[in-house]
Amino acid sequence: MKITPHQFRHLAAKIVLDTHPGALCMVKELLGHKSFKTTANAYAGLRTREAAREYDKLIIAHRPVAGGR
After folding, report:
1. Buried b (16+ CB within 10 A) or exposed e, 30-63
2. What is the Cα–Cα distance from 16 to 24, expressed in whole angstroms?
3. pLDDT of residue 21
4. Taking the CA of residue 11 as centre, how many other CA atoms within 13 Å lie in the half-sphere pointing to its CB?
5. Per-residue DSSP letters for the chain?
6. pLDDT tens-digit map of 33-64
7. Where are the domains of the chain?
């Protein structure tokens, strides 16, 4: 399967955001966007579910263990 350079850019952003859901600044720099707003408009809404999963992991990691900690 062939992909265009534009599709490759989207793939790069997806790989970064799948690994680090909040890394919009990294995507901005990777793609060379001058404005953060450009990156946020294109990718922020797509990462809501992944960000919620990461937040759940943080909460679980900071929860006291039953029986004291």
Report:
1. ebebeeeeebeebbbeebeeeeeeeeeeeeeeee
2. 9
3. 78
4. 7
5. ----HHHHHHHHHHHHHHHSTT-HHHHHHHHT-S-HHHHHHHHGGGGHHHHHHHHHHHHHHTSPPTT--
6. 999 999 998 888 766 777 788 889 999 999 88
7. 5-61
